Amino acid sequence: MNKRLFNTLPALLLAAGTLAGAAPAPAPNGIELPAGYRDWRMLGVSHRTDNSTLRVILGNPAAIEAARAGQTRPWPDGVILAKLVWKDAVHPAWAAATVPGEIVQAEFMVKDAEKYRDTGGWGFARWKGLDQTPYGKDAGFVQECFGCHTPVRDNDYVFTHPAALP
Amino acid sequence: MNKRLFNTLPALLLAAGTLAGAAPAPAPNGIELPAGYRDWRMLGVSHRTDNSTLRVILGNPAAIEAARAGQTRPWPDGVILAKLVWKDAVHPAWAAATVPGEIVQAEFMVKDAEKYRDTGGWGFARWKGLDQTPYGKDAGFVQECFGCHTPVRDNDYVFTHPAALP
Q1: For B46, which of A39, A46, A99 is closest by C-beta distance?
Q2: Which of chain B's termini has less CB crowding within 10 Å, N or C?
Q3: Do B50 and A96 touch (CB under 8 A)?
Q4: Is A14's pLDDT higher than 80?
């Protein structure tokens, strides 16, 4: 290791540490990436063959409580649903198994019936890729989200039906 | 309601309550259904087209800690992996989405390198259906589990590669 690099190393490590610890930018509508969502519990899973993605749906503690009590039409205020999306990959040792490949995005629905009354009571946000770039050029991006969720308006605009758990 | 049924009702309710609260029978090799697995965090997901099932893989706290530290070859003692398996169903509002239908089984791998040294350091157990009937006629059932996991011996006999999390 040359001396210049050696002298610079602590600063580089510090910069990398800062970068790794920095929160991603908020979505264009002001929604912040929910803290701790990686530790939320599972509500469901899906596989979309129209865009070759696997998804897991997680819920914050309020969502898990609501789901287990059957309170999902509507979901109560305070609930946050997370959908983690990966590109399809083939399991290296089991060709008939589709498994998560590259991460595509993490999507969130935040329930606040009053604050988000123009979009069914839900605030929408999405962060793309491992570096979690916020999706959308301006706050109008939510119309795309809301439009796609309109077919499930009878299920409080939520595609996920919590999976039966033994 | 006739009188005989009315008189019997408290006993019936008590019996149902006991049934609902009772732990399922242990697996034929003595492994008990791990407590609290419904609240474990997510390690991965898969979709098998050879038997039309969707799966989510959860880990106990030791498993989540090991996965995030990259300690999966081998996984340390104390780790328990859970795989929840559902039959494929079609989302009622999105025909190209496969979602969980009926529950098939909950499967577990319990890591104890010494105790389970004859089966790669893993104890296997499976409970079928919503009523969680233990799988296997006798303790020899684990040979079926172990045989199926042998192709992934280089991955500590585990099919699951923890999914990349943003």
Answers
A1: A99
A2: N
A3: yes
A4: no
pTM confidence score? 0.87
Give the tokens for residue A156.
């409080």
Q: Which DSSP category does A164 fall into?
A: P
Chain A contact for B55, CB < 8 A? yes
Single-letter code of the amino acid located at A24 = P
| pLDDT, greater one: B7 or A100 | A100
DSSP code of B45? E
pLDDT attached to residue B22: 79
- DSSP annotation of B92 reads T
* Residue pair B54/A47 in contact by the 8 Å Cβ criterion: yes
Closest-CA residue in chain B for A152? B93
Whether B62 has its CB under 8 Å from any CB of chain A: the answer is: no
Contacts of A53 (CB under 8 A, 6+ apart): A47, A85, A86, A87, A88, A104
Chain A environment of B50 (Cβ under 8 Å): 96-97
Longest alpha-carbon distance in chain B: 65
Q: Which of A37, A43, A46 to mutate to test the interface with B (most CBs of B within 10 A)?
A: A46
Written as six digits, the tokens of B47 are: 């979709």
Q: Of B22, B53, B24, nearest to B135 (Cα)?
A: B24
- Name the residue with tokens 């979505």: A27
- Which residues lie below 8 Å from residue A118, measured CB to CB, with a gap of 6+? none
What pLDDT does B72 receive?
A: 98
Contact B58, B42 (CB under 8 A): yes
Q: Given pLDDT bands bounded at 50, 70 and 90, which one contains residue B10?
A: very low
What pLDDT was estimated at residue B138?
Answer: 97
When pLDDT is averaged across residues A92-109 and rounded to a whole number, the result is 97
- Please check whether residue A99 is in contact with residue A124, taking contact to mean a CB–CB distance below 8 angstroms: no
- In contact, A63 and B70? CB cutoff 8 Å: no
Which uninterrupted H or E stretch holds B14? helix B3-21
Task: State the Cα–Cα distance between residues A107 and A117, nearest whole angstrom.
Answer: 19
The reply to whether residue A96 touches residue B49, judged by beta carbons under 8 angstroms, is yes
